[in-house]
Design a protein that fits this description.
about 100 residues; mainly alpha; globular
């Protein structure tokens, strides 16, 4: 994905960041048991979506059925959004060539 996005530069002003969705949720105060179990437990996914809405991702919990990938994508969106505002909870600054992008939670 990053290679594809890199090919869109310089036509588009893109910034790329790496995110670990589970760490994002834990470091921002979500329930650790829900994060541990959201891949297999629909109730944990629902609670995490409700928690993510409280964190500012409005409207994400309106779906009836959600996959673990959806929850992870929402958590990654939260981490990326907060990074773009300079509000990362944790940040490993890029160090090319081995770590070409910031890694944030």
């Amino acid at each position: 994905m990053t290679r594809l996005l890199e090919n869109l530069k310089p036509e588009y002003n893109l910034e790329i960041v790496e995110v670990h969705p589970g760490a994002c949720m834990i470091l921002r105060g979500s329930d650790a048991n829900d994060v541990r179990n959201f891949k297999t437990d629909p109730s944990a996914r629902r609670r995490l979506l409700d928690w993510l809405e409280i964190k500012g991702l409005k409207g994400i919990s309106r779906m009836d059925k959600v996959s673990d990938h959806y929850v992870a994508a929402c958590a990654a969106a939260l981490a990326t959004w907060q990074w773009s505002l300079g509000k990362s909870v944790w940040r490993f600054v890029s160090d090319p060539p081995h770590h070409p992008y910031d890694f944030v939670c």
